[in-house]
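step=encode ok
step=design start
structure_in=
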């Protein structure tokens, strides 16, 4: 079925575009996290509790990003399986 093949190509393109964009965002966020760590080390005026809170915030943000990635990957896989079933 030609339509299923075209749909698969579109999905593959969308997945590749998402992967590239997501990886670029991850790189930016990792660089920002490194800069934040350096700033926190130099901010001797900031109480330890404040530093701990900021680091927990960064860890929570990272976990949310990983959860989002897993969800998107799962849904791409479901769509690919759906269209694979139409080809048969």
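sequence_out=
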């Amino acid at each position: 079925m030609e339509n299923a093949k075209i749909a698969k190509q579109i999905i593959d393109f969308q997945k590749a575009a998402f992967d590239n964009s997501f990886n670029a965002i991850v790189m930016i966020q990792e660089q920002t996290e490194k800069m934040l760590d350096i700033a926190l080390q130099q901010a001797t005026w900031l109480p330890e509790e404040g530093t701990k809170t900021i680091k927990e915030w960064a860890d929570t943000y990272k976990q949310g990003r990983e959860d989002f990635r897993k969800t998107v990957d799962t849904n791409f896989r479901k769509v690919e399986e759906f269209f694979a079933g139409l080809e048969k």
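step=design ok
step=annotate ok -> The chain is about 90% helix and 0% strand.
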